[in-house]
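As promised in the previous annual report, we have extended the structural survey to additional targets. Below is the entry for 2-aminoadipate transaminase.
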Amino acid sequence: MHAQTYATTTLPWALRTDHLVGSMIDSSTSLLAAQKHDIVRFAMGSPAAEAVPHAAMAEIAGRVLTADAFDYGATEGDPALIEQLVAFCDAFGEPTSPDRLVITSGGMQGLDLACTLFVDPGDLVIVESPTYTNGTATVLSYGGDILEAPMDSDGLIVEALPELVARAGRLPTMIYTIPTFQNPSGTTMSLPRRLALLELAREWGAVVLDDDPYGHLRFQGDPVPSLRALAPDDPLVFSVRTFSKLIAPGLRVGWVDADPAARRLIINAKQAMDTCTNVPNQRIVAEFLRQGLLTEHLASLADIYLPRKIAMQTSLERHLGGRVRTTDPEGGFFLWVTLVGDDAAVDTRRLFEIALAHGVAFIPGPALSANGLFGDAMRLCFASSTPERIDVGVQRLAGALDAARAE
Ligand code: PMP
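The corresponding structure token record, generated without further manual editing, is:
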């Protein structure tokens, strides 16, 4: 029991409530829903509305949702979905087997399960800087200590880790990485760095939390093998995947691919959380895969997302040329935009407030770092808006930046 006073009420709070930091990313959904004026949404990492196959899903739902789909399901996942998933992963070059898979309630539950298994209070967890802070929020909720490690255009600078760890004075128990089209930077870890990371993890006995929701969403360049594909049998690699960006986030269906010994504990942990993942949605996804629709759907996404990335880069050049620097991802959803020159003095948390009034939303850099770094940067999601809307949004962002400078 813990005596903290929270939200003006004194209750017998558990110690861990000190570490429930919340997520600005998730909170932006309700914040934006409450706004009455028109807002261009670069904040959430949502698929394009046009890229959600809702008509096909509704048709499938009408056929497959028989009475048994509304009963409790197996904790490890619906057998029909597991069967389809094995074939899907195999075709993507990530061969797996049913004794490695557990269907989860989105990728977030996969991250939570990894921390349940491997993070004790005070354990050191290396994360990329910047990173997806819902992941670091999960680590913090288990009492883990975060060590932010720098990135460059080839992803996590693996060569920098030994010195960081030496300075920390203890070995990490986990390294959390989003290797492909990283959230938020959009960068992809190079093959040599992936191999070096696996080597280092083995040397340290650290778990590699391989969070890869965007790997299927490549619209340019050559594929790089995933960490799972590079180390298919390595028990230290714990892979978290999700259909949120591939089909739709509201489904809340994802999966973990882990060593069979870990899987038994994952099932126990999930039984203490939510019994099983939503069965109707698993059945719908299974049928979507069985008909080969997911493969077709993924092939069509490059035609939506590449023009949007280019549109955002072009609009940034048009309205903010010389005032920002951006990354150039070959897939995924995000551009990482850094203010340069005199504009770098503007704090993007303040810019966010002004931008909201100007009718555009994004995620400020400090919300993507456990230590609140990157006050001069922001994450822009190009996936959710049409090229025309992107241009409107970037123009509004430029107006907001002028207003921030004038304060
Ligand atoms: N990891 C990363 C890197 C993500 O970007 C997301 C979603 N934004 C998740 C995990 C969580 O996925 P889900 O929405 O399926 O829980």
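The longest helix spans residues 293-320. The radius of gyration is 21 Å. These points will be discussed at the next consortium meeting with the crystallography subgroup.
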